Amino acid sequence: MPLESRQVKESRKKVGVFFNAHPIHVLPEQDGETATLAPVSRMVDLNDLVTAKDIAAHLGFAGPQVVHNWVKREVGFPEPVFVVGLIRLWLWSEVEPWLKETGKIT
Fold this sequence. Notes:
By secondary structure, this protein is mainly α. It has one domain (6-101). It has 4 helices and 3 strands. It has a 3-stranded antiparallel sheet with strand order 1-3-2.
């Protein structure tokens, strides 16, 4: 399980009730607008949520920039399951297999 950042803890406090009460889906950003939530048939495990900083820390990087680069440049990097403003949350259970498939971890 990756390290948990303060940002994830705060995000969980803000959206925990929504996540616990409703399946979620994040619509893609359009024209620079922040994505919105829409109900679908997918439940999210709050303990599986990670930020770019969490991913970087788990891999031993000093900061999240390498993760941001993967998001922008690498094919197949998982889509975030939650986006609010600049905060993006991914599921570790989706990120870890991608890291293994691309040889970034063994």
